[in-house]
Amino acid sequence: MDLTESPAEQAFREELRSWMAANAPAPFDGDTHSLEYVDYLRTWQRTLAEGGWLGITWPKEYGGRGLSPVEQTIFLEEMAKAKAPPIIGGVGIGLIGPTIAMIGTEKQQERFLAKMLLGEEIWAQGFSEPNAGSDLGSLSTRAVRDGDDFIVNGQKTWTSYAHVSDWIFLLVRTDPEVHKYKGITCLLVDMKSEGVSVRPLRMMSGDAAFNEVFFLDVRVPVSNVLGEINGGWNVAITALMHERANLGGAAHVLLSQFLAGIVRAARELGVADDPLVRQKIAHAHLGLEVFHMTSSRALSKVGKGEMPGPEGSILKLFWSDLNQRMVQWAEEILGPYGQLSEGVFEPFSYNYLRSRGNSIEAGTDEVLKNTIAYRVLGLPKSY
């Protein structure tokens, strides 16, 4: 594993830092659940895209830079360090765009990729269903061929940003007679189509970024099939590979910032010298170092041109466990102050409530453990 940045990578980091210092917007002062905030994020995404900082690993002919995942990780790290606004089209840029660039037709690439980068069209990922979350192959949303269209009926859930999305990357069942993984197709669906409706899911943290999406006799042109009809499972695997490709960089920075906040709060409350408090902080620090080394090992492998290994699943599993433990330790250290939802202690209360979803989103812990046991360790299946 090589942790030394090349001169070109160092220059990339310095160029990005200088650009961020000159172009990062002022923090949004308002309701982050409002349409004004959505417009603020769209504007920020367009600024990034026009500056050449989005689609870093995308081919140049699609508006990207054609660089490696190393530069993409540097970008995510510096965004986190600068506490820059999030990228509202992150699902499209990090997951759907690269998949369309690899699998899509030339017409699809010309139609969607440029608008995706500029934030003119926001994308959602329509995978999970009420009865097909961890077992995605059991999805039941149906698409029936009718001439030059498919007619779609069904429901998706836990769909991030569907309430502000223009398009959805949708997995549907097109052949119920074959094995469940062989009868799935991926459709690119306009969210403004007649028959599409969205219902937000408000969580206990107050967020409503997740949604239920309903499809009632929605017509989708056959030309909007991504890949092959009944070949959607391979499309999904390609997309998921991109989803976890850059988990480590930004996550490590954000967790480190959170730990620094715990230390500041412990000092302010006068409990920083308590042996139990110091033990919790030490455990968190060690966990962060393990996470960082595992992330760096995965990045080093990709940087050498090797295929990604099991590190993506391992990183996601480790991150969800570490983050949940860290927010629990923060609440124990802060005591009653950890319940405050305003002022200096506000992030701790929010992060504790939000962290409950970590072991479910992007692959449940139980499923990831089985995957690692079976495919990495070679253990027998449990059924």
Q: Strands across the major sheet, in which order?
A: 1-4-5-8
Counting helices, strands and paired strands, the structural category is alpha+beta
Our measurement of the CA-to-CA distance between the termini, rounded to an integer number of angstroms, reads 37 Å
The global form is: globular
Beta content comes to: 5-15%
How is the biggest beta sheet arranged?
4 strands, mixed
Can you give the helix content as a percent range?
Answer: 40-55%
Oligomer type: single chain
Helix segment tally: 11
Calculate the mean pLDDT score and round it. Answer: 89
Q: Could you spell the SSE succession in H and E letters?
A: HHHHHEEEEEEEEHHHHHH
Summarize the structure.
This protein is of the alpha+beta class and 383 residues long.
